[in-house]
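Lay summary. Proteins are chains of building blocks that fold into shapes, and those shapes determine what they do. In this project we predict the shape from the chain. Here is one chain we studied, written as its sequence of building blocks.
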Amino acid sequence: MDAARISERTGKAAPTGARRGRNSLFWAVLVAGTATVGGFVSQFPYGLLYVGVLVVLAAAGLGAAVAGSNWNRAGAATVVGFGTIALGVFAGNNLNESYLKLFGERVDAVVITSREYSNAKGDTRFSCRVAESSGESHELDALRNCYDRVPPGGHVFLFKDRIGGLDPWMDTDGSRALDPLGLGITGGLFLLVGGTMFAAGHRRRSDRDLHEEHLRRHGPPWRSHR
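And here is the predicted shape, written in a compact code that computers can read:
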């Protein structure tokens, strides 16, 4: 009878056994994967930053709603909500760097100018203008790995997207080695979000389950007799 309980909210039988496992895995991959894709999309120019941010926020809201409202796992909903946003932030920059270093074209360049400035909010930013040997120049910021350690006239390497969708990634040594710390954090957050979502789906509770648990802990509500 426990496996066939009817959810008071949906009016449908709760999934059990292998079906519940597949459903939980679907939501785990969907939420974590969507946040990762949204973070990567936010690295593209032409206003796609806002599209990527909206995708990450949508994944966080959907995952928290399913875990908290549908499955009645408030703790898991909190972890999924905040973890998904963090995953989008870390995945965007790290996947961007990894993609360009693995598949990008490496070219020599020289730093023409490097300057520090303040934006409209008063935050300090750094900007580099670099020129390739072909004469093509690029304006790069900290998201493209531009920092004050590279003085004007310094020799750098650019990893350019062969498709042309992403801005170049600047580096001083030209190594194609990937950042293990950044990828480790991204992978850890992916497993945290996906694993929490999967566990919440396996341990989901219906409204009736919550009501019966409340009765076991606190007993039936007290009623006055007249």
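What the prediction tells us: Residues 74-103 form the longest helix (30 residues).
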